[in-house]
Amino acid sequence: xxxxxxxxxxxxxxxxxxxxxxxxxxxxxxxxxxxxxxxxxxxxxxxxxxxxxxxxxxxxxxxxxxxxxxxxxxxxxxxxxxxxxxxxxxxxxxxxxxxxxxxxxxxxxxxxxxxxxxxxxxxxxxxxxxxxxxxxxxxxxxxxxxxxxxxxxxxxxxxxxxxxxxxxxxxxxxxxxxxxxxxxxxxxxxxxxxxxxxxxxxxxxxxxxxxxxxxxxxxxxxxxxxxxxxxxxxxxxxxxxxxxxxxxxxxxxxxxxxxxxxxxxxxxxxxxxxxxxxxxxxxxxxxxxxxxxxxxxxxxxxxxxxxxxxxxxxxxxxxxxxxxxxxxxxxxxxxxxxxxxxxxxxxxxxxxxxxxxxxxxxxxxxxxxxxxxxxxxxxxxxxxxxxxxxxxxxxxxxxxxxxxxxxxxxxxxxxxxxxxxxxxxxxxxxxxxxxxxxxxxxxxxxxxxxxxxxxxxxxxxxxxxxxxxxxxxxxxxxxxxxxxxxxxxxxxxxxxxxxxxxxxxxxxxxxxxxxxxxxxxxxxxxxxxxxxxxxxxxxxxxxxxxxxxxxxxxxxxxxxxxxxxxxxxxxxxxxxxxxxxxxxxxxxxxxxxxxxxxxxxxxxxxxxxxxxxxxxxxxxxxxxxxxxxxxxxxxxxxxxxxxxxxxxxxxxxxxxxxxxx
Length: 661
What we know:
13% strand
């Protein structure tokens, strides 16, 4: 590792000029990457609370230190305070947790990750000064050797310098040939503050996250030509450019070959002409923007305000990306029979593939959704919990702003099972209470004449959770009017919500009328007709989204069929749970509050002759009961079974025809 150059900070300590970046590494990858890096000669690892992988890095450090070649004093460890840990009371506990995860007794460098705390208002609160002074105390104690900032403008750094007892040693910012930051470099150089460059390769893996368009630095023709002429990779040329530009560099990779290649930049230089060519690229764009920290009410309303740019000097990132969080005040709400409010548009999360729903939830909450519909059975509440934790830590959206629904699965109906099931849901969602808990189906898996455990037993166990504050409201899903009436007859806490399938192909007018008369709110799932479940339910017949009347109405209004169906649901008196994992459709599905379906169009959709239940009870039917037919399950009069019952038939075939020996 002796070949890796170092810089001397303004407190006399040394920082290696090439470090391992660890942002956006997938769970389980960074431990091995850190081992590869330290064994290859890296002696600088850049970490952060927010990256949620410091425990893995700590395991790698413990392994390497135990091997005896590399000691703790050989490795420069950086970490960063996240936005929710800026108060003087929060700084030390946050750093103690970082040290525990990294399995070390001190940090070489602690940075404020962003000049943002999540408060809404004219100024950042707690103040940066309060945070800085708490960090200075950690320097005095020896828990931290050097302190600095990340993603700060020159103005914000100057503010710190004006009152600091311990001056900033390092400013870590995005720097590469597409975003050179020459003014900031000059400012820091004059004040003996070292600059570290993150995203030195142009952050190619964050383009979707920041909705970024435009050329990719790694594909730049000038860079590619220089790399070819020198027989080096574009990445090596960018790292070498950063060193010659006067910064330390944090290339990120989890691939052992690239980790080693990224370090092979110390024995050669870019020729002057090549260096200057990269310093002269016309395209300039900030790749890692502040879009998620912007709020119409402040403290930062625009990218220009965040970066302290002169009016008119906003970068392309500000113009192109726009604000990170949409205003959620336009989403209408209904008041439940217990006085609590439910947003009328929520994100449906059923049938999302593993790994998809975290990002979808992030997109939704940032787009203005404040209602997320979950369930034990969907097996993705842990991902939703990760998204919630991320959003809450960003500070714009708080827990009390989000209405969270979950549902008890069929095997958790007994009075002994309800509470542990809910505790597991809360643990996965990383919250202390649910806004709404529903019984998912009026079915428990028993075979016999009646449902056992009884719905009454389940309901009373749920009422106890309301008394304890673990759940604010309770209700049911996939229940008939008769089954809801049964609950009302004995409930101490009446149902606040009935969640059922409703759309123009399955209007449920009788159930809506029944609930309306009893002040029970109705939520519509599958408002688009559940087009992705036809195979699951062996369903035939027309698809709602292709209905000619709907398509004609959508065309005449210049809206999508999905938007018209969501708007129909709102006008039909329900809250709505459209499901998508596509960011564009998630946003589009919310764009239904500033207009209405004309009366004639609404009534046309209310008059479609075809009626079919798309999500049937076929899997809960058994010749021995408690439900032998769809008609029995839904408490329909004999002869009134829906097309779903006639078409799908019973979920279990008669096995008596299978011969035995």
